[in-house]
Amino acid sequence: MITPQDIEQKVFTSALKGYKREEVDKFLDEIMMGMESLLAENERLKKNVADLQAEIQEHKQNESSVMETIEQAKSLMSDISESAEKRAEVIIKNAHADASRIVQDARESVANLTSQSDTMKSHLNTFRSNYKKLLKQELNRIDGVQNDLFADLRSDFYPGTELEEEPAPAVENDMQDPAIAAGLFSETISDEPVAPVRTPMDDLFSEPVAVQADVADEEPTENMTDKTLTDLVLEQGETSPDFDENAKTIVMNGSEAFLHQNPDGR
């Protein structure tokens, strides 16, 4: 390759009818300057090419890094997706297990409550039956004591009527008669017959007896106020769902009234 130095140092021989030396030298100078300019431009372009190649190489490296990052992101995304799926499966499995356990506990609780309810119903029915029997026995005993008391009073005031009436059924009672306890009457009654003596009080006593007989023949009505405590309790037990509370109230009120009227419990 010819360089500007070669052009500058080139020497031509002289010949007859040759070129003018000045023109040749001037042209060679122009060629040398043009050559130097082209060489400088060529160097500059080479440098630019080198820079561009370096930049391209850098971009290639960046591209490789970007592709590697993309691959890592894809791998990470796949791992996250797989982990999320596994976690979702675990959560769903645990949820099913918890739901099954809750349902099982609820069923066991319902079974226990049902069993307790049946047991309580059985105990309640037994209690109601025993309570009714106890009320009947107690109130029948009270009615028998009351009849015995009235019979004793009638025999004491009107001895003659005792022979005409049928003897009342015997009622076991260890409690002392309140009239005897108060000293109003004697506990022993003479076995000697006493002739009945008609007094004005006989007319007063016989009339209520007749009235009582008429009343006894009448059919009882729903609004009768002389119902026994047993009747009231049994009616409440058949019609009211709150038999226990109503029965307690009736028995307590009836017992308080009876004890208030009969302090000795008769």
UniProtKB/TrEMBL annotation:
This protein's record includes keyword Cell membrane: no
Example of a GO cellular component annotation carried by this entry: cytoplasm
UniProt-listed Gene3D superfamilies: 1.20.5.2950, 6.10.250.660
Subcellular location, principal: cytoplasm
Biological processes per GO annotation: cell division
Keywords per UniProt: Cell cycle, Cell division, Coiled coil, Cytoplasm
InterPro entries (alphabetical): DivIVA_domain, DivIVA_fam
Cell compartments where the protein resides: Cytoplasm
A Pfam family of this chain: DivIVA
Record's protein name: DivIVA domain-containing protein
Organism in which the protein naturally occurs: Hornefia butyriciproducens
